[in-house]
Amino acid sequence: MINMMPINIENQTFMAISVQLPKTNLLAVASEKGYIMCGALDVGLLNNTLKDRKILAGRAIGVKTIEELLDAPLETVTLEAEEKGIYRGMIGRKALMKMI
Prior knowledge:
Blueprint: E1 2-9, E2 12-21, E3 24-30, E4 34-37, H1 43-47, E5 56-59, H2 66-71, E6 76-77, H3 79-83, H4 92-97
Parallel strand pairs: 4-5
Antiparallel strand pairs: 1-2, 2-3, 3-4, 5-6
């Protein structure tokens, strides 16, 4: 099942996406410029193979719900995210606010 719903953080709207798969969930919250995602995100691929796309993204591991994703510290971030002041350990919702 795929669930999509808008969520508000500090009066800004983001899109939360949850994909329920056997034995796992894929979770992401996106702005128009970037996104945070669960551990399935391959930041190395974004930084290396897709570097020219300058993708603004961060990954949190061990999260099972959208709320956990928003409250989790980011385990890794893309090079583009670092340039925008998003860093490893930053809480998901704070990173999203830098992606607007």
